[in-house]
Amino acid sequence: YRHGEASEVVVNTPDGPVTFGEHHPLVVVAGPCSVENEEMIVETARRVKAAGARFLRGGAYKPRTSPYAFQGHGESALELLAAAREASGLGIITEVMDAADLDKIVEIADVVQVGARNMQNFSLLKKVGAQPKPVLLKRGMSATIEEWLMAAEYILAAGNQNVILCERGIRTFDRQYTRNALDISAIPVLRNLTHLPIMIDPSHGTGWAAYVPSMAMASIAAGCDSLMIEVHPNPKKALSDGPQSLTPEAFDQLMQELAVIGKAV
Ligand code: PEP
Ligand code: MN
């Protein structure tokens, strides 16, 4: 079991510092799966900010199952994220897949995301641990809690103490109705085992926009510190993860409901 106090991860955003942690208001991260073009990323940033999000998420480098699926716009998408940061004041969270891209990502991102598929890419973990920006470590799709905490330990051991853990659903036997099984029990379990802040991603956790609000509520009830929600201005046209993306209107509605039930947003 954990010894000592919950740790805080303070992230500097254009709008000022935002703190992730047990004793702080819920931090909501929102945005599209992929950065598609300037108009959509800037529009999404403005809309999620107006609804109360503190961070914009969006992939420039995408870990797609098929090599023929959209892979992300890469470096040019990083520039679009920088523009959205400027336009909105939101902090930026984006994924690093390859250590070769890390320096470029660190220049524009306020938090560097390591995705589920790279949770045990130990050389990447060592490298994100040796750079100065906070790291969001997603749970591997079949990772045990122990494996996940050990992956976090790689980052901490390399010198970076600013690690946020993100549960995004695990692979079980039923993929017919949900993409993954969101492990809500990870919240109290992690609270017992680690001092690190806990984020929940009900978008990848369920795979369906219709299920996102109830799982977001459940996650708050179970005590999470932060939520990551995929939002797209036109989910039907999204280049990735459209079925699980909320419209800006649905996101706004969710934020109003969240404000009522728990930790102030
Ligand atoms: C994502 O955040 O868009 C993503 C690819 O998530 P995960 O690594 O959890 O699948
Ligand atoms: Mn996605």
From TrEMBL:
Top-level taxon in the UniProt lineage: Bacteria
Keyword annotations of the record:
Transferase
Q: Name one GO biological process term.
A: aromatic amino acid family biosynthetic process
Sequence ranges assigned to domain DAHP synthetase I/KDSA in this UniProt record: 17-260
Q: Does the keyword Transferase apply?
A: yes
Q: Name one GO molecular function term.
A: transferase activity
Q: What is this protein called?
A: 3-deoxy-7-phosphoheptulonate synthase
The source organism is: Fischerella muscicola CCMEE 5323
Upper lineage: Bacteria, Bacillati, Cyanobacteriota, Cyanophyceae, Nostocales
First-to-last residue of the parent protein present: 77 to 341 of 352
